Amino acid sequence: MPSKKRPARKASGSARPSSAKQAALDRFREDPDGQLLTTDQGVRVNDDQNSLKASARGPSLLEDFILREKITHFDHERIPERVVHARGAAAHGYFQVYHSLGRYTRAGFLQDPAKKTPVFVRFSTVAGSRGSSDLARDVRGFAVKFYTDEGNFDLVGNNIPVFFIQDAVKFPDLIHAVKPEPHNEIPQAASAHDTFWDFVSLMPESMHMIMWVMSDRAIPRSLRMMEGFGIHTFRLVDARGAARFVKFHWKPKLGVHSVLWDEALKISGKDPDFHRRDLWEAIAAGAYPEWELGLQIIEEADEHKFAFDLLDPTKIVPEEQVPVERVGRLVLDRNPENFFAETEQVAFHPGHVVPGIEFSDDPLLQGRLFSYTDTQLTRLGGPNFHEIPINRPLAPMHNNQRDGHMRQNINVGRAAYHPNTLGGGCPMQAGRATGGFVTHPETLGGPKVRDRGEKFFDHFSQATLFWNSQSDPEKQHIVQALRFELGKVEVPEVRERVVGMLAHVDRTLAGQVAEGLGLAVPKPTGPVNGSVPADADPKKFQPITLKQAVDRSAALSMAKTVKDSAETRKVAILAADGVDGEAVAAMKRALLAAGAMPKIVASHGGSLKAEGGGALPVDFALLTVGSVLFDAVFIPGGDRSTSALAGDATAVLFVREAYKHCKAIAASGTGLALVEAAGVDAKDVLTRRDADGQLTAAFVKAIAQHRDWAREARAQSVPA
Ligand code: HDE
Q1: Closest residue (by CA) to atom 44 of ligand 1?
Q2: What does the alpha-carbon distance between residue 393 and residue 153 come to, in Å, rounded to a whole number?
Q3: CA-wise closest residue to 307 among 454, 468, 204, 203
Q4: Residues paired with residue 243 on neighbouring β-strands, in sequence order
Q5: What is the whole-number distance in angstroms between the Cα of residue 714 and the centre of ligand 1?
Q6: Residue 357: what pLDDT?
């Protein structure tokens, strides 16, 4: 009989808070502890090492049902990856409102501040395949499934508040353009290639989004340090049936932070799972990621008062015009137990709404309402994907939908139709009073046309607003990103057309990009608009310019984000044998107290001999990491340690890169020797002879600042 009992299960190292969704998932959890190996039919297996053969050296027998079952199942383990957003990472948690939102919506989960609604959140990149790097320059998906008592509500958003296109009909074109080119399947998870920029160069409506994806927003430091946006305008409907427009925002507690492009490239080599690991480790360590839900509420009567159309997903509503009201918090406190069962099989859909939350007529959203169920039919293999444990609502589910591939519910009785008497009329329709979904009676009218609203043709004003709102370092990063991306484009006319388009956003921007590409600054001629219908008057498709209410918006710049916490920041303590053990201990204490994650990075694995005795366990050997995987570096003293590191090219490069990437660096005692060997300016390094209270406090403060961007230009001269 079984003897080896596994240790009690811990969910991915984190304490497992109980939630209604967890209890529901537990019904499906296999618990192999102490169990015997069986086939899928429950027959106990005696030999899982040898197939059945006609004699020890003879051929395998077809009769071997154990072998056949095992291999058949294996052959079918893979399902199609998501056509977009294939690479993702997810976590469980909860959402709670600060106070009742009854004045805006009847949605039950937004009424009671004592109520915790279970959620499952999946973050993703858009263009790459499942195995691509987390650090691709790309939009990040930010999809939240709320398991409310009235059914599932999915807020399927991104970390950027606008999108490339205005109408769903262009989505397949956009995705075909950005995905690897069809003839050679190159490049993976990258927009830096001809087809993407060819498409962009013909689609002036993409320019606002292009500004965002060429900014550092597209290379986040952490999934925990990104904003989220519902993008489209939605509707909230209150108990009296009154509707208001709403924009959804997620504001991260840790602020909005990004890495540099050079780091992104190097992280992709050193740890392509950087974001997924970061999310997992933070949750496992109990540092639960947190966001506030923000609402921008717009009265129906104000629909037309803006210099943009509320239905246009390439526009934001500036926070200066409509402030973001923070109404609740989202906390992620549990890692999934099985990637496939949860993260891969979860099926989001912007059409999953609950009473009190509805759609607007945004033509991109309207198209999405069709796409998401349709795609699951292929990806998850049939119409019963809602029965997969991660997708099941907590709210009771009763209807007359029946059968289909992999049906799991056993529906009973004769009547699978409505109305019926043979089933006692059940299940019955719910009236508004019993929570029935009643669509807001929006008045519609007008001719049937293929067209878009007039203000949709203002393609550049908000792109300019974004550019004007950036700090100088942020502007420089946008210029560099465009130089990189367009530098990879082979067809000169495509490059020129894009620069021509940039000239409509800002002349300086276009000039700087053109200079990097060796192009003349283009004359501000009218942009080519590729999306003109065959029989339309092209004049109608010329961009218009509408004066926006603000020409700068602080919320658009990451430089203005929260910078008050060193929590979960990874700090490398560079050391070798002979290190000053006390300096290490003091710094570790201070960093841990600030919620940071200090790690000893040493010239070898195992443990280090500290100066004057004692052993220090090593977290990482230098060879296995790189400073790009850390937020800051501390170099403790100790003669032998620092002279060994100063002579070690890997350690020298570690400090140099941290310096060039504008990270906080501190050194105590003889630690400065390594700073000198790296050729970095000691003025930019926090120093003290001992790791006393002042050094540690100054270091923690510098880490909370994320980066010292003012150093970036100076650091250019330090060799890489
Ligand atoms: Fe999606 N999108 N999308 N999208 N999208 C999918 O659904 C689609 C759009 C977003 O973690 C697919 O289940 C169309 C905007 C996220 O599982 C698919 C259009 C925004 C995720 C699909 C858009 C998004 C998806 C692929 C234009 C931000 C990942 C697999 C009309 C508001 C969800 C799947 C997850 C996934 C279609 C545009 C966000 C094919 C047709 C705009 C976060 O249904």
Answers
A1: 372
A2: 9
A3: 454
A4: 237
A5: 42
A6: 98
Please tell me if the CB atom of residue 165 comes closer than 6 angstroms to any atom of ligand 1: no
Q: Whose CA is nearest to atom 14 of ligand 1?
A: 368
Q: Ligand 1 centroid vs 372 CA: distance in angstroms? A: 7
Helices 581-593 & 693-704, crossing angle to 10 degrees?
Answer: 50
Taking the CA atoms of residue 377, residue 383, residue 389 and residue 394 in that order, the dihedral angle to the nearest 10 degrees is 120
Q: What is the mean pLDDT of residues 680-687?
A: 93
Residue in this structure with the two tokens 């949709």, named with its chain if needed = 456
Convert the pLDDT of each residue in 320-375 to its tens digit. 999 999 999 999 999 999 999 999 999 999 999 999 999 999 999 999 999 999 99
CA dist., res. 530 & res. 235, Å (int): 32
Determine contact, residues 547/461, Cβ cutoff 8 Å.
Answer: yes
pLDDT tens sequence across 526-548: 888 888 899 888 888 889 999 99
Q: Measuring CA to CA, how many Å separate 10 from each of 334, 494, 548? A: 10, 54, 53
Q: Residue 716's pLDDT is what? A: 86
Question: Residue 660: what pLDDT?
Answer: 97
79, 249, 348: residue to mutate for ligand 1 pocket, most atoms within 8 A of CB = 348
Catalytic residue check, 158: yes
pLDDT in tens, 416-455: 999 999 999 999 999 999 999 999 999 999 999 999 999 9
| Ligand 1 atom closest to Cα of residue 232 | 32
**Which residue minimizes the CA distance to atom 6 of ligand 1?**
84
Q: Which atom of ligand 1 is nearest to the CA of 364?
A: 31
Q: Determine the Cα–Cα distance for residues 669 and 579; give it in Å rounded to an integer.
A: 10
Tokens for 246?
A: 């709403």
Instruction: Respond yes or no: is residue 85 known to be catalytic.
Output: yes
Q: Counting atoms of ligand 1 from 1, which one is nearest the CA of 83?
A: 26
Distance from chain centroid for Cα 204 = 26
Residue nearest to atom 19 of ligand 1 (CA): 368
- DSSP E strands in 638-705: the ranges are 664-668, 686-688
Name the residue with tokens 């001999």: 609
- The rounded Å distance from CA 276 to ligand 1 centre is 20
Q: Which helix (H) or strand (E) holds 176?
A: helix 171-178
Q: List the residue whose alpha carbon is closest to atom 43 of ligand 1.
A: 141
